[in-house]
Structure to design on (850 residues):
């Protein structure tokens, strides 16, 4: 018996040996690497429609930001020649002697302006407006919404303010602002952003409130995490897909809103070319001069559909549950 | 529950007040007031002092300031002494002429005027007579003495609320000629039923029946939302949106004096709308009417502005719920299959394309393919004119409803109770129709009152494109013409509707889902 025990002890010494503790290796996690944003883009580009939309978006962006430089648009260039007003594409090319057929391939508008050049210059304004307004309103809205949803004291105050401002008709507010500060591009951006963030903040507040009282947040609060860290590390990452969805509806939303405002007569000033104004000018005679009405409508629709679909795909991809 | 509701309503009224105040600040203070004369022809025709006086009168009338002029002060002063003949009295003539001279300040009545209004905090202004070098007065150049007091926003709000709801009584008409004053039940010869008729009241018929929806009407209580200045010159907003539009509709009727005889005339007069004539009754009117109730409006063929908007909106909402809900459920059931993909394409189209684009697409399709009337005013058969606007609105609403129904259905599809129901052997149809949809509808129920009451607000774009005489364009038109009274009135109307629909939505939600309690001390939440 004694011999046996000794033998097994000896065996064990042969089989196992002590190794030194390696500080660096102990920190390594052997699970596969996971990077949130890399996964988002992996899922995003897996969809063929995303790639197609990106190509389309790049084309539209190039058209809107490069073409107006190559083709400077002047809506008053033929204003002194009433014969150029409201020409159909064929007549316009014939009238201008075929020297620049691309310029006149969509006909002329009310003042003999080139529709082709006009839509790209207008698309530039509308896109810029949408991007700037969305950037400002989303940033302010999300920051304030996060605090609003998190702090109950702030919530009580903000709800009163929200109830009041949300009930003042927005077009009234806009038109008063436009009356006071003018209707150029930057005043218009100011008018759209001065209360525009409020709706986003309110939506975001509700989302934050749902996450705020989840168990992991409560646990984190019990451990003494400061508010700023709670918001930035516990709550906001959870809402990334919500933010992207919001962006996806907001960007085309501003383009549509500009069209609507121009239509009811409180849009950008007449000297700034914009899709809304072109559509508004074209709609009065859209049955007789269809070439002045449909091109800006089509461009606006392409931009909004592309932005919306891209946003939807990105929002789907930014939901971690699709990363399996 | 009752306590909760009361609290909600009180809070809502408070925010309504603040909203009205903010809007008043915006339109009366933020915008330069002289813009109200931009579209005013009378103002253009006036010159010199007359124009200034006209401006002040208008500012006074439309609530910018309180304004008193010296002549009206004299009228009050001397009519107390001489009654109706004050204008012939020597004192009145002398005092009135006094302000045209350079020593106007020495006049006794002027002193009195200055003292009275100066002490009351008014600002006094003397407009010197404007003369040509020859000594002749320039056109509109007579001298004036006026007292002005700016209104602050709190006072303006109080003034607005004070007369917000008024009721008629038999002492309303101040006319010594009127001897008989009463409010009583009478036989109504125009409807064949009874009516409540007043004498001494503003309206003759205070409560009556007729063939127009809702068949019973009243003129007893008046809601004074405000008065229009430019778009509907001097009209009350409530009558602007409630009076019928369209062509005059004549019928065989009798003037009050013809009643009892077999004499009839073809006329469009609405005899139920008679109001008291404070001016002079013409000789013709004397043969037609037994009393001084001779001011009337006409019967018209069309619906009123608010009815137009409501009919179109309600039809669109009904179509949207009838089509959008089933399609949304279908999309959720066939998730990721062809039906769902088609539905999604439709939703994306509606959500992203500018609304104006598909409204015009509809207008174009409807007019070229189906020969439907495009503009409301040129429609031969009125019924057909309602089709295109209704469809344009419904197309949008269907998209929105489909989107949300599908979303909520899919969210519910992975719930435990669905798995449980399936494990019990329920058919898919049963699961969808009785389990999932009932839970998904909880989220949709809240929006139903808002979408129905929202019809009263009208649709700006649709109504503009098809030229529908509805309430949707009221606000934009008022803004473009600086019609401050209308802006305030419309804001009050919109805000009230949105508040009421929110409260109704919450109540409906609590009624539909027994788990939800609105009381703070019950249920979840904090």
């Amino acid at each position: 018996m004694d011999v046996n025990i000794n033998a097994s002890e000896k065996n064990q010494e042969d089989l196992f040996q002590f190794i030194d503790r390696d500080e660096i290796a102990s920190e390594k996690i052997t699970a596969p690497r996971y990077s949130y944003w890399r996964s988002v883009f992996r899922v995003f580009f897996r969809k063929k429609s995303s790639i197609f939309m990106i190509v389309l978006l790049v084309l539209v962006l190039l058209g809107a930001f490069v073409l107006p430089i190559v083709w400077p648009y002047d809506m008053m260039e033929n204003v002194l020649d009433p014969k150029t007003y409201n020409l159909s594409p064929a007549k316009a090319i014939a009238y201008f002697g075929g020297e620049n057929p691309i310029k006149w391939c969509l006909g002329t508008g009310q003042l003999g302006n080139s529709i082709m050049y006009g839509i790209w210059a207008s698309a530039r304004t509308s896109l810029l407006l949408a991007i700037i307004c969305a950037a400002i309103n989303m940033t302010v809205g999300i920051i304030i919404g996060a605090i609003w949803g998190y702090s109950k004291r702030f919530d009580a105050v903000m709800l009163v303010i929200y109830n009041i401002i949300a009930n003042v008709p927005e077009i009234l507010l806009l038109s008063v602002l436009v009356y006071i500060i003018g209707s150029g591009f930057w005043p218009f951006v100011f008018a759209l952003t001065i209360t525009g963030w409020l709706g986003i903040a309110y939506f975001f507040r509700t989302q934050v409130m749902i996450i705020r009282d989840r168990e992991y947040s409560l646990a984190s609060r019990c451990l003494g995490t400061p508010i700023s860290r709670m918001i930035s590390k516990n709550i906001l990452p959870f809402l990334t897909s919500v933010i992207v969805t919001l962006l996806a509806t907001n960007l085309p939303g501003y383009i549509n809103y500009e069209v609507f405002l121009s239509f009811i007569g409180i849009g950008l000033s007449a000297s700034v070319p914009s899709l809304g104004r072109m559509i508004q000018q074209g709609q009065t005679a859209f049955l007789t001069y269809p070439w002045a009405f449909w091109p800006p409508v089509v461009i606006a629709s392409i931009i909004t559909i592309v932005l919306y679909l891209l946003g939807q795909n990105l929002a789907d991809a930014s939901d971690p549950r699709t990363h399996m | 529950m009752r306590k909760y509701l009361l609290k909600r309503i009180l809070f809502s009224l408070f925010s309504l007040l603040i909203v009205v105040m903010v809007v008043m600040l915006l339109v009366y203070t933020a915008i330069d007031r002289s813009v109200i004369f931009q579209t005013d022809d009378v103002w253009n025709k006036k010159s010199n002092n007359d124009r200034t006086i006209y401006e002040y009168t208008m500012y006074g009338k439309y609530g910018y300031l309180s304004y008193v002029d010296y002549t009206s002060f004299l009228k009050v002063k001397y009519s107390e002494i001489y009654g109706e003949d004050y204008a012939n009295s020597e004192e009145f003539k002398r005092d009135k002429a006094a302000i045209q001279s350079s020593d106007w300040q020495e006049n006794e009545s002027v002193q009195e005027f200055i003292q009275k209004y100066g002490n009351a905090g008014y600002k006094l202004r003397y407009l010197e007579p404007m003369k040509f070098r020859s000594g002749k007065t320039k056109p509109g150049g007579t001298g004036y003495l006026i007292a002005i007091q700016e209104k602050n926003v709190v006072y303006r709000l109080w003034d607005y609320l004070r007369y917000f709801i008024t009721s008629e009584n038999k002492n309303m008409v101040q006319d010594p000629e009127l001897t008989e004053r009463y409010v009583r039940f009478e036989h109504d010869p125009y409807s064949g039923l009874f009516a409540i008729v007043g004498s001494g009241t503003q309206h003759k018929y205070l409560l009556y029946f007729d063939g127009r929806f809702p068949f019973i009407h009243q003129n007893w209580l008046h809601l004074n939302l405000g008065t229009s200045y430019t778009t509907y010159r001097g009209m009350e907003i409530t009558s602007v949106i409630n009076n019928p539009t369209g062509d005059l509709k004549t019928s065989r009727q009798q003037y009050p004096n013809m009643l009892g005889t077999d004499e009839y005339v073809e006329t469009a007069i609405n005899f139920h709308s008679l109001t008291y004539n404070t001016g002079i009754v013409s000789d013709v009117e004397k043969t037609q009417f037994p009393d001084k109730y001779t001011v009337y409006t006409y019967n018209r063929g069309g619906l009123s502005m608010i009815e137009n908007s409501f009919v179109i909106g309600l039809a669109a909402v009904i179509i949207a719920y009838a089509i959008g809900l089933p399609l949304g459920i279908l999309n959720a059931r066939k998730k990721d299959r062809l039906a769902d993909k088609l539905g999604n394409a439709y939703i994306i189209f509606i959500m992203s394309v500018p609304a104006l684009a598909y409204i015009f697409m509809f207008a174009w399709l409807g007019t070229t393919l189906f020969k439907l009337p495009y503009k409301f005013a040129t429609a031969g058969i009125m019924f057909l004119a309602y089709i295109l606007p209704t469809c344009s609105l419904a197309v949008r609403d269907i998209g929105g409803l489909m989107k949300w129904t599908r979303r909520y259905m899919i969210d519910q599809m992975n719930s435990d109770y669905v798995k449980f129901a399936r494990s019990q052997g329920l058919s898919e149809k049963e699961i969808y129709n009785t389990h999932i949809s009932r839970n998904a509808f909880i989220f949709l129920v809240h929006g139903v009152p808002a979408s129905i009451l929202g019809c009263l607000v009208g649709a700006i774009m649709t109504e503009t494109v098809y030229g529908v005489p509805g309430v949707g364009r009221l606000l934009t038109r008022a803004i473009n013409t600086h019609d401050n009274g209308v802006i305030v009135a419309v804001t009050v109307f919109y805000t009230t509707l949105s508040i009421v629909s929110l409260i109704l939505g919450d109540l409906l939600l609590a009624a539909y889902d027994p788990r939800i309690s609105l009381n703070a001390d019950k249920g979840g939440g904090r």
Summary: The CA atoms of residues 122 and 274 of chain A lie 4 Å apart. The longest helix of chain A spans residues 115-150.
